[in-house]
Specification:
Strand order of the largest sheet: 7-6-5-4-8-1-9-12-2-13
CATH class: Alpha Beta
Radius of gyration: 23 Å
Number of helices: 14
Number of strands: 18
CATH topology: Alkaline Phosphatase, subunit A
Largest sheet: 10 strands, mixed
Distance between the termini: 39 Å
Oligomer: single chain
Helix content: 25-40%
C-alpha cells in the first residue's frame, strides 16, 4: 500500500513538473472548419491528437468571422475590446489590426525567449491597404495596382506585401492565397508557389522543427492553412476521396418553419434541389481539403518525434470559426447558431491526459490564456479568457456558466449556457432556445411565458458580457 501511494505521488510530481516546464507550442488553425462533425473524417487528427490528449466537446468562438477571430487569438481579447469586427477595412481586417501588432501573443512569447514562426494565413486583407476615397490620382493607382502591383501606399509606410509584423522570427505568410498558386512572404521576400498550399506549409513547418533540434530554447508555431475555406479545392492526391459522402442533414437542415426566426432567416427561401446539390459538392470538397491538413498534422507530429521534441510540446488543433451548410436555410457563418460558432478543439502535450473529453463551455479566448499560462509569458493585455489547465487533471473542475458570442454592428449578440441560448437582435427581436430538449434550435421560446425567468436572468448577463474586460468576462 505504501509503495502504491509513493508511486502515485511520484506520478503526480512528474505530471506537475511537465506542466510547469516551458513547453513548445504548436497551434494548427484551420479556416472555416465546423465543430459539428468534420473532424471525424480526419483519422490522423483523431489518432495522433484526440487519442493522445483532450477533446473539448463544447468549444466556441467569440465571433464567428475570420479576422475578428484571428485578432482574438493574437490578443486574447473579445471582439468588443480589440475592435476588429469585420474582414475588411474600415471595420476590420489587417488594415485596422496593424496598429495593434506591437502588443500581441508572438511579441510576448518572443520577449520571453521563444522562437516564433507563422505558416500560412495571417489576417484577412493582409498585404493590402484600404482603398483611397473615390476620385483622384491615388484612387486610380490603387485600382490599377490590384493585389500584386502598385497600391498607392506612402513610401514611409513600407510595402504592405512584404510587411513582417513584430514578434515573428520566421514569417512564412500568405500574401495572396490559393489552394494551387500562392504568393508567400518569407521574411520579407515574396515567393510564387505553384504547389498545393497545405503541402507547402507542411514541408516548411517540418523544416522549422528540424531547425530547432539543436537548441534547447522553446518555440511557438502557428500553422494556418487555407483549408477548408470554400471554394474548397483538394490536392490532386485526394480528388477522388469521399465519393459516397452525403451532406449531413440534421433536423435543422432546410428548416421548414422559420416564422419564429429573425428576419435574416425568416426571409430566406427554402433550399431547392439545385442548391442542395451544390452544397453536397461543397461539403465533399471541404472534407477532401481536410485530408491534406490531416497529413500536415501527421508530418508535424513525426518531425517532433524524430527531433526528440514531442514530449515537450503542446499541440492545439482548432479553427477560426464554424460554417453552416443549410441548417436553418443558412449557408455561411457570422450568426449565433451552433454550426456557426462551434469549432473543433483538441489539445495534447505534457500535463494533458490521454483520450479524454471535456464538456465545459470553452472558447478561443481560453486557448490564448492557456498558452500564456503554460509558457509563463507576461501578456501586455489582460486576457478575456481563462486558462484551460484546471480542466486537464479534473474533469469536474468548477468552470464558467456562460459565454459571450458577438456580432457587433450587424445582427446579434448572444449568451450561451450549458442548456440555454439567448440571442438579442436589433429592433428588439429575441431568440431563446432550450438546448436541453431542442439542441437543433428549432423552437424559439422567447415569447413563451414558461421561459420568462430564463429571459429575466439572461438579458442582464448578456448586457454585462458585452461590456466585459479581463476577469469581468468570467461568469461563475
Amino acid at each position: 500500500m505504501i509503495v502504491r501511494l509513493l508511486l502515485i505521488g511520484l506520478s503526480v510530481m512528474l505530471i506537475s513538473s511537465a506542466a510547469i516546464a516551458r513547453p513548445n507550442v504548436v497551434v494548427i488553425l484551420t479556416d472555416d472548419q465546423d465543430g459539428t462533425g468534420s473532424i471525424s473524417h480526419m483519422p490522423k487528427v483523431l489518432s495522433l491528437l484526440a487519442e493522445q490528449g483532450v477533446t473539448f466537446t463544447n468549444s466556441f468562438v467569440n465571433m464567428s468571422l475570420c479576422a475578428p477571430s484571428r485578432a482574438s487569438f493574437l490578443t486574447g481579447q473579445a471582439a468588443h475590446n480589440h475592435g476588429i469586427i469585420g474582414d475588411q477595412a474600415p471595420s476590420g481586417g489587417w488594415q485596422k489590426f496593424r496598429p495593434l501588432e506591437g502588443n500581441t501573443l508572438p511579441v510576448w512569447l518572443q520577449a520571453a525567449g521563444y522562437s516564433t514562426a507563422l505558416f500560412g494565413k495571417y489576417m484577412n486583407a493582409y498585404g493590402k491597404i484600404e482603398p483611397p476615397q473615390r476620385g483622384g490620382l491615388q484612387s486610380w493607382v490603387y485600382r490599377l495596382g490590384g493585389d500584386f502591383g502598385i497600391d498607392g501606399t506612402r513610401q514611409d509606410d513600407g510595402d504592405p506585401h512584404t510587411w513582417v509584423p513584430p514578434g515573428w522570427d520566421l514569417w512564412f505568410a500568405f500574401a495572396a492565397t490559393g489552394y494551387y498558386g500562392s504568393l508567400i512572404n518569407e521574411n520579407g521576400k515574396l515567393l510564387k508557389i505553384s504547389d498545393y498550399s497545405t503541402d507547402v506549409l507542411r514541408d516548411r513547418a517540418v523544416r522549422f522543427i528540424h531547425e530547432q533540434s539543436q537548441t534547447t530554447a522553446p518555440f511557438f508555431m502557428l500553422i494556418a492553412p487555407k483549408a477548408p475555406h470554400t471554394p474548397a479545392i483538394p490536392s490532386h492526391k485526394y480528388e477522388q476521396a469521399f465519393g459516397d459522402i452525403k451532406l449531413p442533414m440534421s433536423p435543422a437542415f432546410n428548416e421548414r418553419n422559420v416564422s419564429q426566426k429573425p428576419p435574416v432567416i425568416s426571409k430566406l427561401p427554402t433550399l431547392d434541389e439545385e442548391k442542395i446539390g451544390k452544397l453536397q459538392k461543397r461539403y465533399r470538397g471541404v472534407l477532401q481539403t481536410l485530408l491534406s491538413v490531416d497529413d500536415l498534422v501527421e508530418a508535424v507530429v513525426d518531425a517532433l518525434q524524430s527531433t526528440g521534441k514531442l514530449e515537450d510540446t503542446i499541440i492545439i488543433y482548432t479553427s477560426d470559426n464554424g460554417m453552416m451548410l443549410g441548417d436553418h436555410r443558412w449557408v455561411g457563418k457570422y450568426i449565433a447558431y451552433e454550426g456557426s460558432i462551434r469549432v473543433p478543439l483538441v489539445m495534447r502535450g505534457p500535463g494533458i491526459p490521454k483520450n479524454e473529453t471535456r464538456s465545459q463551455l470553452v472558447n478561443n479566448l481560453d486557448v490564448v490564456a492557456t498558452i500564456e499560462q503554460l509558457t509563463h509569458v507576461t501578456p501586455g493585455i489582460a486576457p478575456d479568457g481563462r486558462s484551460l489547465s484546471p480542466l486537464f487533471t479534473d474533469s469536474t473542475a468548477p468552470w464558467r456558466s456562460a459565454i459571450l458570442v458577438e456580432a457587433l454592428g450587424h445582427r446579434e449578440a448572444a449568451v450561451r449556457t450549458a442548456t440555454r441560448k439567448y440571442v438579442a437582435y436589433k429592433h428588439d427581436f429575441e431568440e431563446l432556445y432550450d438546448l436541453s430538449v431542442d439542441p437543433y434550435e428549432l423552437e424559439n421560446k422567447a415569447k413563451d411565458p414558461s421561459y420568462a425567468s430564463d429571459l429575466a436572468s439572461l438579458r442582464p448577463t448578456l448586457d454585462g458580457l458585452r461590456r466585459c474586460s479581463g476577469s469581468s468576462c468570467w461568469v461563475p
